[in-house]
Amino acid sequence: MNNIVVSGYYGSKNAGDEAMLAAMLEVFTELDPKTKFTVISANPEDTKKRHGVDSIGWLDILAIIKTLKKSDLLLSGGGSLLQNVTSGRSLYYYLGILFLAKLLNTPVMLYAQGIGPVYGWLPRKLMKWICSRAKYITIRDAGSLSELKQLKVTKPAIKVTADPVLAIHPVAIDIGRKILAANKVLLTKPIIGICPREWRGLKHYKLTLAALADKINENFAAQIVFIPMQFPEDVKVSGKIASYMKTKPIILNDEYTTGELLSLTGNMDMLISIRLHALIFAGVMGVPMIGLSYDPKIDRFLNSIGEKAVNTLEDADVDKILHEFTQKWRNKDEFKAMNKNRLAQLRKDAYSNAETALSLLIKK
């Protein structure tokens, strides 16, 4: 039996990261059901309950050392762990886990990582030294490859794949329909999902989304539903946006599982999102999407499926987003077909992350 440790932003009630872990475990179970996982988590009990795997605390250094000693491989990822834009301290933490594994002679694979941006001479120097000592690196987009080249990371082997969530199977929409009905969403009228997030206390994009939601409600007789990807933070920011609206949206005020969020997304006629994994959920469930960018990872994903972010949060413009919405609304079937074809290859690429990890175990 192979023992794998997974390091990532797990146990923090972020639906995108929990979906990544769920997708990783789903693919590994299909390929090798006997593989045993231990996940480093901010909330080990929640991770055990949610994913059915062993879990240890992210600050329990003794437990991490003990687990790494008896493990065959450390997977670092997925997600944008190795960057210092959203947090300066977290980069040092994740690099520290990689360094610890190196000291204990535990092989390391960067698993579908989103790399960068990394600012500062010391963080960049540490990135180069530690990443160069991994056993294998898979990254989820071409932008991450450019970052590694700028960091002068030339070894080990590096492969561009795709975000792990793209390997997850679509789900039935029944559960989502029940959740929507319980929140008094009419299933007989168009439903537009909005997945917001707080970003640096900016107000402009919130006003833009509020005005946009009012116009969509007026022009397309559509219901606006705010979907939280990080609970309860996204509920709070949804409330702020709703307070600027003239019409009354529906705010889903609960914490949902990966399956429930996928099912909810599948019931949307269109999804407007700042959250990366909400956009990926839309892709998995065949729903047309509009992305607003606050981070290069949004642009990189949209570019990978032949689309681009309409605006950044700083320059969000109601008329420009509404124009994009109208174009996609009129050609929904065409956009669904295009995204389906593009995502088919990305799904294979996402699946290959686990295949690569298992091949490392065979070679050890």
TrEMBL record:
Q: Which residues cross the membrane?
A: 91-112, 276-294
Domain Polysaccharide pyruvyl transferase as annotated: residue spans: 14-296
Q: Which UniProt keywords apply?
A: Membrane, Transferase, Transmembrane, Transmembrane helix
Q: Which InterPro entries match?
A: Polysacch_pyruvyl_Trfase, Polysacch_pyruvyl_Trfase_CsaB
Where is coiled-coil annotated?
none
Name the Gene Ontology molecular function terms of this record: transferase activity
Name of the molecule in the record: Polysaccharide pyruvyl transferase CsaB
